[in-house]
What we know:
heterodimer; A: alpha/beta
Amino acid sequence: MAAVIEIEGLRKSYRRFRKPPTVALDGLDLEVPEGGVFGFLGPNGAGKTTTIRCLLGLVAASAGRTKVLGTEVPGGLAGVIRRVGSIVEAPALFPRFTGRRNLEILARIDGIASEAVDAALDRVGLTARAGDMVRTYSLGMKQRLGIAAALLKDPALLILDEPANGLDPAGIVEVRGLLRSLGAEGRTVFVSSHILSEVQQMADRVAIVARGRLVAMGSVHEVLSSGRAAGVVLRVADLEAGRQALDDAGIAARVDGDVLRAAVPPAEGERVARALAARDLYPSLLQPDEGNLEQAFLELTEDDHEVGA
Amino acid sequence: MIRLIGSELLRFRSRRLVVVVLGASLIGTGVGVVIAAFQSTPPTAEALATARAQAREEFAACLEQDWEGVPIEGSLEEFCDDNFGDPALYMGSHLQLADLPGILEGISSITSIMGLVVGASVVAVSWQTGTISTILTWEPRRLRWFASRVLVIAAGVLVMTLGIVAFLFAGLAGAAILRGSTLGTDGAWWADVLSTSLRVGVAASISAVIGAAVAAIGRHTAAALGVVFVWTAVIEGLIRGLRPQWTPWLLGDNLVSFLSWQTTETQFESFASFTITPGRALFVIGGYAIVTLALGFTFVRVRDVQ
């Protein structure tokens, strides 16, 4: 599978007056395969937005190489930008122009027909408000207009920085569905987000960055299982009695909400079941404890601190 | 490039500031014309005949007079006609369409400030609203984008200024026909009106380009306007006082010479003077625009967009 984004040793530091430079990216390596949704995660200041700005030629990297759709950027960006749709941070649009006028201005740069503007507005559900000034839009509507602008080019690669920001739950579900469908169409959707549960639900692959470096990359399943101890999660009628039974059997366990988490490899699940059955406790749930992306994220970026934009 | 210019043109004419500035200029012009019309005492046919008769007399007297020692350019007839033969010189206070070139020169400072504000605002707003990120993800060739925008600003301000001039001309012509006089509006006057209009338009356009270039450096409208005003009002004033020999290179003095299309000669010490010809003035003003544009281009190209 060809890579649509290739980043090698990307470094970006900002000079500061009489202070040591701020390092936003510290030798980032990343490869995003073609097709599907790719989640780009990291705590605030990890370098996500700086990476996106470097990819789009908005910020000049201090060192390293970046390729978008097989072309070196920023040098060759003009040749591929027609196939790249993007939102960087909040969608930046003219607040005193209507939503339609904003899209028309962009469409005119590439000679895109006005029918495409209508189609993009329709796809994000903004047709009814297209004639209103953007400053009257809610944050969610601005996000949707930003996505419409990114879709205008009918891009092969979408680079979206926090596209679900400010959306209400219904909007989040809608955008999630939209991005999934775009990924399913064969486009590559590169999404940075701090809403980890969202990324978990829509991404095929993820990368986690911290302090300007890559700390994990792979399928969601691979990343979930990296950086954390294996275990099993189980549910019994009496959680405290279950915990005691496992403890007596030499298995460390703790109550976590309405489940028990036991520190034992999933392959030894039978041992857990036997220990519980010996006390007349029968689990209604017993499965490998994969946790969620949020836990993996926190563990992988533990001790991280803010270092840049 | 054509599509980019088309996009910039659409953005330019959609800007509220452009609409407001143009609307306010037209309203101001209209109000001025109405006031001038009401203050004008319409010349009667009798007053007009008297003025014509007086002009003929003065012209004849001029031809008879001994002008020895007085430098006269061209023939004596031309000199007398220019200085004594215009009937408008001998009429009471009333609106004279013949004064239009002078009025146009008078409004040039307002149209130049208008150009400066529009130029600075149209460039700086992209940074102030963050839309520069969006634009550059559609056209990453920054110089191409900036050149398109500056071109649209220069052309847009030129058209706006010529529109204001045309509106002023139409208003004053109507007012002069109804309540003033149109005497002296001959072929030479038309040529003067056209060339002055063009110069007023070019001056506003160059001001807009300078405003745009400075805004590209400061990325803020108010900062750009502040820098230009400090330069023209404070620094140039100090230079005139402290280093008068540098005055021929100042923007303000060259603008005055260019707009009036007259050579200005100023004695600044008992033994030294300087001359600014209109052509030289245009060269110096153009130089200011090119230098600020080069700086603006450099800043746009080199600086990160956050």
